[in-house]
Specification:
Elements lengths: L3 H11 L15 E2 L5 E5 L4 H6 L6 H12 L8 E4 L13 H18 L3 E5 L1 H5 L7 H4 L4 E2 L9 E5 L2 H6 L1 H11 L2 H4 L1
Parallel strand pairs: 2-3, 2-4, 4-6
Antiparallel strand pairs: 1-3, 5-6
């Protein structure tokens, strides 16, 4: 079994994602590699592309606030993205870009072996549950065996950035976040 550092070193070199050509750097997952919970976002934004760490912009600040609301810190979780490189102008990642980074994400998850995966937003969720709508399943535990994924428990949530743009989602996201501790 490879360490997470070895996995990242391999995939930084071998990932075939076209976004590699326009991004500043790969944004590797970050956090506690011995955690029971992994958060998956969709793609790095501008600040993440420059800093090399996921969720360090405004959405990351709100994520930290939500973690504090359930007595957790960034150091308690692991956080990564479906794609490891920033799409130009923060556009949505394309299906082929998600596919190009899929084996990297699976290797991360196999290394960490979380009990629960929390999807931050519809793009992260649709990568694993393409038939579901985030508005229908946010805050609901989904159970599914997925080849290459070491858990069968998933919790889809709205993306923290969505709550920054739509105040109505803020309380829903905070309420959904409170469901995490009992699930663990």
């Amino acid at each position: 079994m490879k360490t997470l550092a070895e996995i990242n070193e391999y995939w930084v070199e071998h990932c075939t994602c076209d976004l590699k050509a326009t991004a500043t750097q790969a944004v590797l997952g970050d956090g506690n590699i011995h955690t029971k919970i992994v958060f998956i976002g969709e793609a790095p934004g501008k600040k993440e592309d420059l800093g090399g760490i996921p969720f360090i912009g405004a959405a990351g600040k709100f994520l930290n606030e939500m973690l504090e609301s359930i007595k957790m810190k960034r150091e308690d979780i692991y956080i990564t993205n479906v794609v490891k490189y920033r799409p130009p102008n923060n556009r949505d990642p394309l299906p082929e870009e998600k596919e190009a980074c899929r084996a990297w994400l699976e290797a991360e998850l196999q290394s960490i072996k979380p009990t629960l995966i929390v999807f931050l937003g519809r793009h992260a969720m649709s990568n694993f549950f393409p038939e579901e709508k985030i508005s229908d399943v946010h805050g609901k535990l989904l159970k599914k065996n997925i080849e290459g994924i070491p858990t069968e428990y998933f919790l889809p949530l709205y993306h923290p950035a969505a709550a920054l743009y739509n105040g109505n989602l803020r309380q829903k996201l905070l309420d959904d976040f409170k469901k995490i501790p009992p699930l663990l």
